[in-house]
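Q: May I have one protein plus its fold?
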Amino acid sequence: MTRPVSQAYRTNYADIEWTPFPDRPKPVEAKGLAPAYISDIMDPTVHMANGKISTSKSEFRRWTRDAGCEEVGNSAFPKRDVAEMPRMGYDIKQAIAQLRGK
């Protein structure tokens, strides 16, 4: 079953730039116990506001802000102080004791 193609798509088909995506370097893999980091490299992605292709997350986000748009769904969680976190050791010991019938 074929789907009907919109008139706008047929009209603008010739304006599409059919260029191949640029090569991107492979991310470095951490070996052993090393600090984790988030790479700025991503798969080539077309930005919807300006039509440019980017392999950099920071550049892509800058283009989004420059276009007056907002990135949704990537908000950071608030950091919690370790001292404020509840200590669960006693609760775990109590639960194990209850399971053993003591």
Remarks:
- The first strand starts at residue 41 and ends at 46.
- The CA atoms of residues 77 and 85 lie 15 Å apart.
- The longest helix spans residues 89-99.
